[in-house]
Amino acid sequence: MYRLHYYPANANAAPHMLLEEIGAPHELALVDRTVEAQKSQAYLRINPNGRIPALEDDGLVLFEAAAIVLHLVDRHPEAGLAPAQGTPERSKFYQWLVFLTNSLQEELMVFQYPERLAGGDGSAEAVIRNGAEQRATAFLDIIETHLAGNGPFFLGDAVGAADLYFAMLARWARPLAKPPRSRPAIARLLDAVTARPAVRRAYAAEGICEPIC
Ligand SMILES: N[C@@H](CCC(=O)N[C@@H](CS)C(=O)NCC(=O)O)C(=O)O
């Protein structure tokens, strides 16, 4: 059985939605950020980065949400959450997933925690936060243009792992001056994803019942 280390609506949400979509038996292990449990010796043995999530799959321990997502789609091809390996569609799936995790997610992290880069300089914090917001906004605009021409989902007509991953990030991006839902094609994707029972189950299990994103 899979064991997902999580904290509500953290980067575990995408792997969690996938587990629910797949219907794979899994258990949740809370990493209590209110007491910095992600930096505890016990958790650092699971993820030496001290960050959430991590997935245990028998003897295999994985960190990095996107790597966990790729592991799950490979282990469960029958769930149809990613195109077949070796196809151009699969390559596009890699492109969008890596763009989401490497570009949008990282910029949202900087937007949320500018003090981590500011070295105690309050004015630098505002500059960093503003720069991250501009870059995240530009990335969302790129996604909007793509979805408007090629949607409703990242890879066309079928919902997949990249859409679930994006829904997780869209929740984090709500505080941006131009939030994700202010763009029509993104709003259409988010409506479709958040209506899915598996997605609602995942968030409900994490204690999130308000609008997901
Ligand atoms: N690139 C990592 C980022 C994970 C990450 O930053 N997780 C956040 C929660 S969303 C976390 O653990 N923050 C606590 C900390 O940095 O101490 C991933 O996608 O798994």
Write structural notes for this entry.
It is a single chain. With 213 residues, the chain is of the alpha+beta class. It has two domains: 2-80, Glutaredoxin (3-Layer(aba) Sandwich); 88-196, Glutathione S-transferase Yfyf (Class Pi), Chain A, domain 2 (Up-down Bundle), CATH 1.20.1050. 54% of the residues lie in helices and 8% in strands. The protein contains nine helices and four strands; from the N terminus they run E-H-E-H-E-E-H-H-H-H-H-H-H. It has helices at residues 13-22, 41-44, 65-75, 88-112, 115-118, 122-150, 161-172, 184-194, 197-205; strands at 2-6, 26-30, 54-57, 60-63. It has a four-stranded mixed sheet with strand order 2-1-3-4, covered by helices on one side. Strand 1, helix 1 and strand 2 form a beta-alpha-beta unit. Helix 1 (13-22) packs antiparallel against helix 7 (161-172), helix 6 crosses helix 8 (184-194) and helix 7 crosses helix 8 (184-194). It is globular, with a radius of gyration of 17 Å. The mean pLDDT is 97. It binds glutathione. Glutathione (GSH) is lined by residues 10-11, 38, 50-53, 64-65, 101, 109.
Judged by helices, strands and strand pairing, the structural class is alpha+beta
Mean pLDDT comes to 97
Number of helices: 9
Helix content: 40-55%
Query: How many domains?
Result: 2
* Rg estimate, integer Å: 17 Å
Quote the CATH topology of the largest domain: Glutathione S-transferase Yfyf (Class Pi), Chain A, domain 2
Please give the CATH class of the largest domain. Mainly Alpha
Order of helices and strands: EHEHEEHHHHHHH
Dominant shape:
globular
Largest sheet: 4 strands, mixed
Domain GST N-terminal: 1-80
Protein name: Glutathione S-transferase
GO molecular function: glutathione transferase activity
EC number: 2.5.1.18
